[in-house]
Amino acid sequence: MTDHPELLNASRDAEIVNACGDGVLDHDYRPFTDDTQHGSPTYLRCVWCHAVACGNYGEQDPCIEPWHHEPLPHRTRAGKTWPIGGSRDEEVR
In this structure, are residues 9 and 52 in contact, taking their beta carbons and an 8 Å threshold? Predict the structure, then answer.
């Protein structure tokens, strides 16, 4: 997504995304509507580094890891975790 500086991801833009909060703070995701794309989709995007959250805008308790966050498991603000490629029913302990 580096060709679109308003939307970054954890694999392609790792240096910028990982530096955000310097491991101390979580990303501060807020709704961001991309009027440059067909249908003007809304994403959860970090206000500081522009990383897009893995979870979808409008989803209840979405994954708050940056998009393409492998190998970390999915994680929500409420603390629920589940493996990459798995379902929310397969909670990681």
Answer: yes
